[in-house]
Amino acid sequence: MKQLISAILFSMTLLLCGCAAAPGDEQLEYQTYVKAGQMVPVTQFTDTKGNLIDLTQSTNAKLLVLFATWCPDSQRAMKALEASDLNLDPNVDIIAIGREENTQELDKFASEYEINFPLIADTDRAIYAKFANAGIPRLILLDGNNTIVKTVIGEGENPLAEVQW
């Protein structure tokens, strides 16, 4: 009974704190490790289809989305992004990185949410850990030279409100 009550209280805390942490995480304080003006710490990814994505090969602006499929704020952000003009802008490359997600989970999510941009599986948080310790969705805006322009935690009703270069 005591474990059930603890689990319920933990679940309520997660709901009140947005998607700061995955179940089992102890630390909920948001820490961002990258700042505007810095170069992006990761420039190469392999998407769920096996394609290499090299940020240095494009001079477009880029939007990196760090998210989790289970997180309601991430789900809202992905729906908003899919429906936005950014999704159709040929001058913006969107890459979404699923924190602690595998290829199968991301492919299922992409199908359900009709995602048409690359998804990256970050099963062990190796990519995410270069950007932050907690808090999703995170939107990282990069210029054409892969310099960080802005970082945004996209919680709330309008997750793309602060996405502007």
TrEMBL record:
Span of the signal peptide:
1-22
Give the GO molecular function terms. Answer: oxidoreductase activity
Q: Which InterPro entries match?
A: Redoxin, Thioredoxin-like_sf, Thioredoxin_domain, Thioredoxin_ResA/DsbE_sf
Q: What keywords sit in the KW lines?
A: Signal
Which PROSITE patterns does the UniProt record give? PROKAR_LIPOPROTEIN (PS51257), THIOREDOXIN_2 (PS51352)
According to its UniProt record, what is one Pfam family this protein matches? Redoxin
Task: Say if the entry is tagged with keyword S-adenosyl-L-methionine.
Answer: no
User: Would the keyword Glycoprotein be found if you checked this record's keyword annotation?
Assistant: no
Q: What residues does the Thioredoxin domain cover?
A: 34-165
SUPFAM superfamilies recorded = Thioredoxin-like
Q: In terms of domain of life, where is this protein from? A: Bacteria
Protein's recorded name:
Redoxin
Which species does this protein come from?
Shewanella psychrophila
